[in-house]
Design brief:
The protein has 33 helices and 40 strands. The strands form 11 sheets. An 8-stranded mixed sheet has the order 8-7-9-10-11-14-15-16, sandwiched between helices. The longest helix is centred in the last third of the chain and has 34 residues, at 978-1011.
Amino acid sequence: SFPCLGHNSSMLHTMFLLGILGSLVIATAGVECRSGGVTCHRINVLVNLPITGSWSGGPSLNASGHRMTDLINSQQLLLPGYELVLHVKNDDCNHDESSKILLNAITDAPSTFVALAGTGCSATSKSTASFAPIIRMPHISWASVAADLSDRTLYPTFFRTRVPDGNSNTVWLLLARMCSWKRLVVIKGSDDRFGYQTTEFLEAAADYDMEVVLSSSILTQSDAQRVLTNVMDIRARVLVMLAYEDSISYFLCETVVANAQFVILTKTHATQFWRQSFDGRDGLCTDSAMDRVAEHMVMVGGGDFRLDEANLTCVPDMSSAAYQQWWESFVEEHVSTPLLPQQHNAAANAADGVCMLALALAFLFKNNVTLQDMLGRTEEVFSHFNDAFAATDFEGVSGRIVFPADGGNGAGDPLGASRIYQVQNGSSVSVGTYNARERNISFDRNFTWPHSASPGGTLVCPFDTFDPCLPGHRSSGMQCIPCEPGSFAVAASGSAVCSLCQPGLIASKAGASACDECPHGRHAGFSGMSSCESCPVAHTANHNRSECHMDVKYLWCAPGCMTFTFLLCWSLFHRTGRTTRVLDVSKVDGKLIVTTCGSHNIYHRWRCSSTKVCFSDTSHPGLDNQPLGFRVRVISSDRLELLTAEGEAISEDLDTSQGIMFQPAPYDLLDTTSLFDARIPAFLPALFKLSSIPVLISVGNLGTCMALIAVLTGLLMAGLASFVSRRIYTRSSTPKQLRIRRIRAQLRESNPSPKACERGPHRGITARQLYGFLEMCSDYIKNRDMHYVCGNFIIPITQAERLSYADLAGARPLNYFVSHSWGNGFRDFVSSICKHAEAVKPERWQEVSYWICTFSNNQWDVSAELGVNLFASSFYLALKSDSCRGTAMVVDSRALPLTRVWCLFEIVATIRKTKADPSFDGLMLCTPSGVLNQGTADMNTAIKIANRCRRIDMRDAEASHEEDRQKIHALVEAMDGGFAAVNRFLRMAIRDSLFEMHTAFERDFDKICYSLKSSSSQLCNVLMGLAKSSAGLTLTDTLEQLQEDQQDNELPGCSGTDGAVSFEKEILQRSETEGTLSVVAL
């Protein structure tokens, strides 16, 4: 058993697949309906459709039929307790296959199907309709239009919901009467398909007093040639074509070859069917040529969706417009897919066919005919079915469906409306409607005809025969066409040839009745020309405009004008707004030197010693977009000394290795060198060239046109040359860009798939990665600070992915948070971090990971890294994380981090975590020589830092943004002790570091005493070593050296505790008198 269908929109596709595959099991047992409480019985309907085959409408019928079935089943209004089930079989548009499907169905499952529906092809309908009465199977066709199916003697129980082709005969004759046509030609296809309709048309034409002058058949390409010849002989213009698309295409192609055009009346066909390829199609029959001869074709047919809006009888809560909207959406979604390879307007007729069957079933149920009675297919039930069909009268998707009441021929044909289409501008458009019940035509759009239109809504038609041609036209087969450009026709005649214009004369437009003379300076050298031509360069036209002769003045003036224009414009284009790429800006011998990529082309000797320049994209705020700019003094062709806007030397460092330099107007023209001689300013040759151009134009008498051509040619060439030269210059890579590419390649090799880690503690970078970065960029970084590193390397390296450098290199969870100032030298910074790593993890110091803002923050989204407040910033998230074991503050003798407000915030966060987490290492002061807290740093550096810290008050810490300073100050003031507590914590950390260094010194001192076994001369060496230690070497280094000496020379000397104590006292006494050890001062 199956659930009732209709409430699920996806069931349409499911039913399509079931229809294609066929039902393996057909059950009639009742199951619960969707609404519940009512037993639901299946009503099986056999549906033969051409899913494949020669006719493309089968999928459209299938989709629309299932849609209407789904709506009827889901509402349970017409057939409560029942559901319609369509069993779709593919008859391939083959009458034998369709008959076979029907016979197999009644043989294999004789009590299963209540009716036969679908049969979209006329041939299959004729086959099944001929023996449906014999097996008493009700039959409704959704799309068959053959006129002979209206014959009730042959098909007494055949019904269809699509208006037949027979109505087209009436429409064509009514249209012929409106246009006063008396002579028509009938062209038909095969007799078995169109013979019946042709006979009916000939009989009806006689009733309308129409003369059919010729009746022929077209089945092949040769038939089309023969028919066209006969039509042209009798000069007939209006053709009625009762044929399939291929026959009409044959004929249209022949009219292209013969250059003829007719008014064709036919039935509806596929959109632009004349463009489809066919065997034997002439090469002249291009799509555009076929569009031309198909223009104005009139097509008549039923089907399609109704024009007015009405509620559907079978689905009362849905209007025809709503159903049409669904269909348009369905087509848009599924057209050109296996579900709907091509749409067809018969979709509306399929919906009406399902509705008609449902109404008939409801009528039979109401009259006490049971489902079992219908499946029994008795004569009485079969008669009731046909009576119900004949009495059909309902509002459908295609219009009102009602059948004639006389019971004669056409009793199974709906009295619906036929749509009238015309090909206009290559597309079929609806121009009117034929009402079969009232037998009249209503027009809603104007017709268009060859060489005329329908003005003001009136029907203006061409004659049914061809007349003599007007002036400017010639006869071509059955019509008059304009003379081609270059030819003319003086008076009205039937001549098939236009006269050619003589040399010196032209006819620029088609349909000319006379030729015009060429204007001055142009000529027409041959007969039949449609336009005048310019004379070649250095030539001019003779007096009758028929030929050109040599003009010497063009030979040198025109090229000279073009050349001078090129040189002038190239100089201007090349200099105006030109940018020069910066390779390096750095201090050399106390001067700030700018090195450019290639020549800077700056000339300054004639005005003053310097000229004005500006910078952009250097990543240095001191250089970029300065409103007053700078001045430069030329040192060489690619080196400049950078000065202030007032021309004074610059003392501060403005280091960068990227960006562009440019001269603002008018300096880019006044202070630049000539393209060919650097000793000449550019504007002097420009003035000479500018004055030479009008002289050449005047002397050569070039005229406006030639002068304009020469100037524009030079202008375009100059623009192209300037564009190419600038393109080559800007596209070439600088050495730093090549270095960045190599760095990125190495990063991709170590981390092929970089991805963004969660900001904060997950973006650590190891000491190995940090040192490796310095190694790759060392020759550029030199002694520069973090500002330079970030702007010149970090941002360019991460530009493509817009990630942090840590993400790009392979981020690690941090072990230590790094607090530092961007003003510290980067080499010292890396040395400090490596020393710290060696101190906390000597064996695997390379694997210690650090959170460093420059490398761990995403420099492309700094606002996100700062967070909505201080405690949501990446800085705080990293420092407070469980994996953070301490804060490593990188300091130098200037103690720059202690002057920055963000370092103040980091110290506050360190204080908090130190109090909350006893295992936290706290603040560790790192220098290039070692870690102060562990006593491994240089003593002099420690003393300088301590002296510097005595004078620092964290209230004076500065920030790049005043808002940051205020927020952090408020945070410090809110904590216990405020700034005093922070200053105290910092000074205590420095003091503890000094004590640690003192302790470490004494510890190393003791180790040295125990290891010494030498005489007093060795003691002097020790003292010398300690003196060196105070001058910059650590005690540990000295101890290692002494241990190596001891291994080389086993020297006797003092040993034991007493000796060590006395030795220490001696050292301390000597230090008091000689002052060699700074530890005594501590």
